[in-house]
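Provenance

Sequences were taken from public entries as deposited. Structures were produced by running a predictor on each sequence independently, with no templates supplied. The record for Caffeoylshikimate esterase-like from Momordica charantia is shown for reference.
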Amino acid sequence: MAIEEENVKYEEEFVESARGLKLFTCSWIPVKEEPKALIFICHGYAMECSITMNSTARRLAKEGYGIYGMDYEGHGKSSGLQGFVSSFDNVVEDCSTFFTSITEKKENGKKKRYLLGESMGGAVALLIHRKQPDYWDGAILVAPMCKIAKDMRPNPMMISMLTKLSKLIPTWKLIPTEDIIDIAFKVPEVRKQIRENSYCYKGRPRLKTGYELLRTSSELERNLKEVCLPFLVLHGEDDRVTDKLVSKQLYDEASSDDKTLKMYPGMWHGLLYGETPENIDIVFADITSWLEERSVANGDSRSEHEIKRENDGLLEAKQQQESSD
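Predicted structure for Caffeoylshikimate esterase-like:
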């Protein structure tokens, strides 16, 4: 299916995963210009791409970027039990395989490529980067799930019990949590839209899903120093879903030379589409400014960028060799 509206062409397609599942993918491409760079969306837990991320994707496509998204297994229009993540590694592998299939098309060979991850999608983006540390040109991490906030995290005794039960009854909805929609999205109309979206999961987290979210966020928190790509991390000061302090920790500990942290007083978790229009404008002004500085203003193509990075690596190795001699 292809729809053209406001100089943006929207397309949908299903691809098959290595496990034989039908996974939904979609894209938003500017019509009147060649995309100046590619952005790959990693959506949040219980969310999906084609509806909840539509406003984000269209906004960036109108700025001249090619946008691609995929609904994870058990999410949105993809196959699988709704709200069930049997393995976070599978989610990362599915996204990485699809995203690289787009970047490696002949017409995209010299375009820069960025990851945009929201909440749980921030964790997905960071783990995609970990698979190929030198492959991506940057990431925009919106309230990334590097640690689940205290309000949302079960107590240690409950975590121990849920870990054991997740092996016995992995799909059961037993994890007690607050209503994420109520505490993530500030604007009541947005909450209403998400509740009416049948592709968004609204039940309690399933046992194995909860275990995978805890396991992955804890692992990421322990290994923040491994993050080495350019990144922009955005977090609302009043976020009660993911921990804003770990975004600060990510900024402090990541080995990236190019890293930026933006904290927004009074804003909640859903920075891309859950805030007031005025606040969303502020967030997107920061995103587009960051992108423009890296994908357009310096005029580098992907091939030139890779050569520079390789030369920098050779120079560093030579300096280390000289110092050891």
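The first helix runs from residue 54 to 62.
The longest strand covers residues 8-16.
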